[in-house]
Amino acid sequence: MESSSKVTLFEDIFEITALNPDGFKFDRVNRLQATGTTFECDLLLDINSEIYHLMENDRFTLVLASTLHLDGSPADHLSYVTTAHTGSEPTLADNYEYVMHGRVFDIKYQKDGTVVLAFSYGGLLMRLTGDKKHLNAIRPDQRLYLLLKKD
Description:
Number of strands: 8
CATH class: Mainly Beta
Helix content: under 10%
Structural class: mainly beta
CATH architecture: Beta Barrel
């Protein structure tokens, strides 16, 4: 079996600096503003607050992965859901508390070497901004998984 590092496109620990920073509050959704502790990326992330609770100053690990299969084999969302319900095979998701499947819908490269990535997870949005050398594995229109766990 290959290492899960073949599956992982990005990983860092983030600290939440603000909850709903724009003052908007939606039913069942919180927008997190956070800063990465290793790569110093800036993150805005919408999460379903009914099923996963994070507060200001909480720390969490965020992983972006191309698949949930530990051997790196490609998978679509439906095959993961089927596997998760049968419990027949361990997946990357087993080590995390909150998982979403979505896609990259915009990438903007700045002159200073920064990249701004925009993702949609079924209408829940994420913006990740940081040095392109840490985010270069992520491609336009790529489908990927977001995995979170509290630290």
